[in-house]
Design a protein that fits this description.
Blueprint: H1 2-21, H2 27-43, H3 48-76, E1 82-94, E2 100-110, E3 113-114, E4 121-129, E5 135-144, H4 152-157, E6 160-175, H5 179-194, H6 200-211, H7 219-228, H8 238-249, H9 257-274, H10 279-296, H11 303-314, H12 325-353, H13 360-385, E7 390-391, H14 394-418, H15 425-449, E8 456-457, H16 461-480, H17 484-505, E9 509-516, E10 521-527, E11 530-535, H18 539-551, E12 559-562, E13 576-579, E14 588-593, E15 596-602, E16 606-613, E17 616-623, E18 631-637, E19 646-653, E20 667-670, E21 676-680, E22 684-688
Parallel strand pairs: 4-6, 11-12, 12-13, 17-18, 18-19, 19-20
Antiparallel strand pairs: 1-2, 1-5, 2-3, 2-4, 5-6, 7-8, 9-10, 9-21, 10-11, 14-15, 15-16, 16-17, 21-22
Helix pairs in contact: 1-3, 1-11, 2-3, 5-6, 5-14, 6-14, 6-15, 8-9, 8-10, 9-10, 10-11, 10-12, 11-12, 12-13, 13-14, 14-15, 16-17
Length: 689
Amino acid sequence: MKRVLATGCFVWFGARLVAAYLPPVANWLLAAVFVSAFLVAMCIKPWKYVRVLSVIGLAAVLFQMMLYGLFVKPIQSLAGQTAIATVIAEQVDTGFLENSVRGQFTVVSLNGVSLPKPKQFRVICSAFPEVSQGDVVQITLSFQPLEEDAYYYGYLADGVLLQAEASSSIQNVGTSHALRFVMAELQHKLSITCRRYLPKTEGSILAAMAVGDSRYLTNETKANYRIAGITHLLVVSGQHLTLLCGLFAGRPGRRHARVRAAASIAMVLFVMALNGFSPSIARAGVAALIFYIGWFFYQPADGLTSLGVAAVLLTLSRCYAVCDLGLQLSFAATFGVLIADLTAKQWKRVRAQADKPISDGVYAVVMTLLITVFASAFTLPIQLLNNLPVSGVAIITNLLVMPLVGPVVILGLLAAFCGLIPGLLFAVRFFLLLAGFFIKLINQIVAFAIVLPGAQLMLPKGYTLFVVAILSVLIWLGCRWNCRRQAVVIVSGLAVMAVFLYSSLQKNVVTLITAGDAASPCVVVFHQEQSMVLFQGGESNRRSVMQTLQSYGVTEPNVWVDLRSDPASLEIQAEKIIIAQQLQEKQAETISFCDIIGTIIHAESANVAVIQIEGYRVGVVQGTLMSASPLQLDVLIAGSKQPGTIEAQQIVAEKEYAWQKEYQAALFHYKPIGTSIQIRIGKAVQIGG
C-alpha cells in the first residue's frame, strides 16, 4: 500500500505540473485525457490500479483549474489598472536608480480594502522608493502583466502575478512583525558572526552553508560552484537537516525515542523558519517531519511515500507552486537518492543470497557513488529543459567534498550561536578558524575540478532529452526482463554512439542565442569553442548575457561588441572589447572571428553589428538606421525600436510592435528570449526555441 500512495502522490504532482505549463484553456483537454484513461481501464479488469491513478490525475487538473479561476485570474485582470495599495517589502535589493530598490512586494490592500490572506499577491517592481525588508507602506501602483521571459514561471511559483510601476510618493505604515521577518533578522545576526573573522570569500560561503544567507556570495564563487556541480551546498537543504537531526536522533527503537523524535521535529521546524521556508528546505523539511512524526508514533516511514506526500502538501497553497525550479530539482535529486538506496540494498541482498557478502566499507563506497550518480541523472532532464548549465565533473566533485560538508555546517552553526552569547568570543574565533580551514579545502577541490576537461558540458536540449529518454526506457526494460548487465553494456554503447553522432553533426555549426530583454535583445555567438557578444541594454541584459555564456561553459567571451549609444560603466571582461560609439561616424570596423566576419558600423542615429557566415548576414541594430541605401540582411534580430533603412528577409522578435507593419515583405519569427539560431555553414539555417 505504501507504493500505491507514493505513486498516487507523484501522479498528482505530475498532473499539476503539466497543467501549470499548459494554457488554462488546454487544461480541459488534459482532463479529458485522464477521463479517457479511466474509461479504458474500466473495460480491462486487471487495470484497477490505472483507474485509481486516472481519478487522482483528473482531481489534480480540476484542482489546478479551480486555483487559477479563484485566485490567479482575478488578480491578473488588474493589469492595466492603477490603485492605491498597501504593500509589505518581502525581498529588496539595491535599485538601478538612485534612492530606489527593486524586489518583490506583497499587496495586502487595494484602494483601502483589505485583501483576505488567500487573495493577497506579490508584485515585482524594479524602481521602488527606498524601503527595508518588512516595511509596510502605502503607495500608488500601476499594474502590468509579467514579461513572459525566462523568469516568468519562477515569478509565478513565488506568488508574483503582476509587475508594477511605483509612484515616488510613499507613506510609511509601519513594520511587519511576521515570523518570517523575525527569523530573517535572526538569520542576519547569525550570518554576521559567520563572516566576522574570515576573509570575504570563505565567510560568505560559511554563511550560506551554515545559516542559508547567500546574499554575500560573489558572482565568481557562484559560477565556480555551478561549474563544479555543487551549487546545492550553497543553500540549506535536506542534507543539512539530515546532518543536524542525526546528531542526537540516533535510531528508532532506542531509549527515549519519542523525546529524540520530538527534538528532531523542533529542529526541523526551526531550520525551516530560519531559512524562510525556501522550496529546497521546505521539501526536505516536510519529508523529515513525516519521518519523525511516524517515528514518534512508532510507525515505520517509507522514503518514497514521504517524498510524495511532501510534494502534494507543498503545492497545495499556490496555483503555480509546482513550477518552482528549486523545488523540482530538489524532488528529482531526492528521488534519485531514494532509488540509489533501493538499488544498493537490492545489490547487497543479492550478494548475500549468493553467499558472497560485501563488507560495510565497500557498501558505503558503492552507496556514496550511486547516490551521486543517480542524483545527477535524475536532475539532468530538468536542467536541460530550463537551459541550465550541466557540469561534467559533478560526480567527482561531490565525492570529494561530501566528507567536508558536515564539519563546515556544524562548526558554522556553533560559531553563529556562540556569537549570540556574551563572553564566548574565543569560542567563535576557534570554530571559525576550523570552519575556514575546511572551506579552503573545498575551494581547492572546486578550483581543481573546474579546469578539468569537460567541466561544463554544452548539451543540446532536444537531442539530449531524446537520447536520455531512449536510454531510460532500455534500462527499465533491462530491469523488468532481469538482464541488467546486458542493458548496461547496450546503454553504454548507445551513449558513446550518440555523443559521436552529435559531434559529427555539429561540425561547422554557428550558434546564435538571444539574451536580455525583448525591447533591446543581445546576441551571443558560439563557434569552434569561441564566443562573441553583440550587446545593448543595461545591467539586467549584462547578467542575462553572462548566464548564457556560463551555460555554455564560458566565463569570458573572446569578443564583446558594445552597441549602446551611451555606454555606461558596466563590469565587462573579454579578450577584446569594441565600443561602437567610439568609432568614426559612417566608418565600418571589421573583425575576424573564427570563420565569421563581423562588421560594426557607427552611424548618426544607430550602431549596427553585422556578422557574415559565408555570405549569410545576421544583424543587430541599436537605434534607428538612416542611410541613403538600405542595409541588406538575411536575418535581423529586432527589439522595440524601428530598425530604419534595413531590408531583411527574416526578422526575429519576441513580440509584435507597431513598426513591424512597415516590413511586410519580411518573414517574422516571434520567439522568446533565449531562442537559438543554428547556421550550418553552407547547408542550412534553423531558427528554433
